[in-house]
């Protein structure tokens, strides 16, 4: 039997419910095989999780390649929707960062994807002239994004609203002078 069905089932399970949901009996039922098939292919759950992390890195590279060609917000949204499960898997890595394997995987993916994504992001939020601020906004936005996403929210309407809120915030920052910000806070 091929590993693919097991990996796809485990990947989705992890993405939607976190690593604690990876139960061999549940996965076996999902792929309609017995548990001994799992042990024959993967040895144990830890080795299976390592396979899931490798699979996620591959999926992330595919997503990053697609992001590198993005020209519009609509294209970005389409890539996010297409890679919904990958985004949710990454969310679980963030949530469960106390596990060194998850933190390492997450950091490796960020190191590869963020340099590709930043130029697109700067253009999208109209901060091409200020890389430092664009990077700060990206960092804040990613944290906020991963706190809010769910399988239900990764859709055209929610993603557009999320990005539009960030763009609106940047536009407002640009319109307000530093002195006006100080006066408003006093």
Task: Please characterize this protein's 3D structure.
The chain is mainly alpha-helical. It has one domain (54-185). Helix content is 79%, strand content 0%. It has ten helices and no strands.
Overall geometric form: elongated
User: Spans with pLDDT under 50 lasting ≥5 residues?
Assistant: none
Structural class: mainly alpha
Number of domains: 1
Which band does the percent of strand residues land in? Answer: under 5%
Question: If helices are DSSP runs of H or I spanning 4 or more residues, what is the number of helices?
Answer: 10
Task: Summarize model confidence as the mean pLDDT.
Answer: 93
In sequence order, what are the helices and strands, one letter per element? HHHHHHHHHH
Could you give a short account of the major beta sheet? Answer: none
How far apart the termini lie comes to: 68 Å
Notable features of this structure?
mainly alpha, 10 helices
Topology:
Elements: H1 4-17, H2 24-31, H3 35-42, H4 45-68, H5 73-82, H6 84-95, H7 100-124, H8 131-148, H9 156-175, H10 178-185
Helix pairs in contact: 1-2, 1-6, 4-7, 5-9
Quick structural gist:
This protein has one domain (about 55-185).
